[in-house]
# Entry
Amino acid sequence: MSYRSTSSQAVSNWLFIVALMVCGMILVGGATRLTDSGLSITEWKPLSGAIPPLTAADWEASFRLYQQTTEFQEQNSTMTLVDYETIFWWEWAHRQLGRMIGLVYGLPLLVFWLRGSISGHLKPRLLALLGLGALQGGIGWWMVASGLVDRLDVSQYRLAVHLGMAFLILGACVWFGLTARTGPPPVRQGRLVGAAAALLVLVFLQIMLGAFVAGLDAGRIYNTWPLMNGQLVPEDYLAGLPFLQAIFESHAAVQMNHRWTGYLVALAVLGFAVAIWREPRVALKPFMVILPALVIAQIGLGIAALLAVVPLGLSLAHQGGAILLFIATLIATWTARRAM
# Structure
């Protein structure tokens, strides 16, 4: 094996490790949201914030800052310092994992760059990905800041931007990891290439709709299936809002849209699987089974989480299912572009 092929494999492995860490980051972020921990740290300290409170006085000072938030004053006014420590650690872990990802991405990038291990095709893309990672940290604080005053939670719009950026970074890590290992895929036209790309966009859209469900706690209402409290379309779908506003701010609308887009994803996956079955390209055949299996499991987890009123374990499993479905669809898109 040549040095170039060995170094390319090392770059690929590094990007896949970063992708795995981003998956963990998304799950910890989900747990932070589900446990209402996201507003527990009210200051943005990218470097010094890596050190948590170490003394009783430090903990008291941090708790006093949280007590100034609307969330504490209107929702958690009976919270003790011990209770606060629990939610603090979730948010701290989420931020700390972000710092670790920055190091695990940035330092090897510098080493690989100086060694000449990164192809010219990937260099500008990996630099852009570094910039996206830095931007994501700023977006995270922008999101948290939206919930510190006059709100009990962060803005669902900013939450969706934050989650969307996380999935874009995840997708880039996987795509560039494949590129480093095998070279960039050719720009190949074809029915399956377009179908795979469209399915990937649809899966991403469904994930964004899920972000609005999480941001509004919309999974805590209409905990019935297949109907929504006996109705196909809930009577408060618009909630007295204009349509374009309702689809992002009405709890009923947000949940219904997420439900029905999930069914649409399932139909699209089924159609894609049939298209693969009719194709002679062997490389795509595994996705004929993988994608339907993942989407069935994901719908099952979503229904179970809804009926159980979004417990932490089931909700995180549902989020994990979204990650797996997104990655599998992205790899299917990659494979469709390369397969002869």
In short: Residues 185-340 form one domain. Residues 41 and 88 are 7 Å apart (CA to CA).
